[in-house]
Amino acid sequence: MDINKVTETIIGASIEVHKALGPGLLESAYEECLCHELSLKSLQYDRQRKLPLTYKGVQLDCGYRIDLFVEERVIVELKTIDKLSPIHDAQLLTYMKLANSSVGLLINFNVPVLRNGIRRKVLNHVD
Fold first, then answer.
1. Which is more confidently placed, 127 or 70?
2. Residue 114 three-state SS
3. Could you give the CA distance from residue 85 to residue 12 in angstroms, rounded to a whole number?
4. Which of 48, 70, 79, 82 is the most buried (most CB within 10 A)?
5. Is the pLDDT of residue 127 over 80?
């Protein structure tokens, strides 16, 4: 499936979850429901995938986890906060670099209209 179609499907599934639940729940509730929607749409995903950090040739387990890794290509970071800030963008971009993923979605469910809580990030070059 084309990467743009994958992100479009993830966003559509997220909107479906938000329409049903609205804002105000825990991140884990949205994650569970989004996983259900992704399954209904036949998208493969890995939930709470460990993200090791390699430092000076040594792989370290620092406890980082990707909320969702969809179709082995798209990182999805979920939030339930008042407002997304630049540190959340930086977190997503760092996770994308560490996981060698060129596309990521940052989705904040704690908004009245979900499209105002979605950010799509693209890395042009992934090492």
1. 70
2. helix
3. 23
4. 70
5. no
CA distance 93 to 125: 12
The reported pLDDT for the residue numbered 60 is: 84
DSSP string of 34-102? HHHHHHHTT--EEEEEE--EEETTEEE----EEEEEETTTEEEEEE-SS---HHHHHHHHHHHHHHT-S
Count how many Cα atoms sit within 13 Å of the Cα of residue 35 in the half-sphere of its side chain: 15
Fold of 3-122: Endonuclease; Chain A (3.40.960)
Express each pLDDT in 46-56 by its tens digit.
Answer: 999 999 888 89
Where in the chain are the domains? Answer: 3-122
Which residue from 68, 96, 85 is spatially nearest to 9, judged by alpha carbons? 68
Classify 106 as helix, strand or coil.
Answer: strand
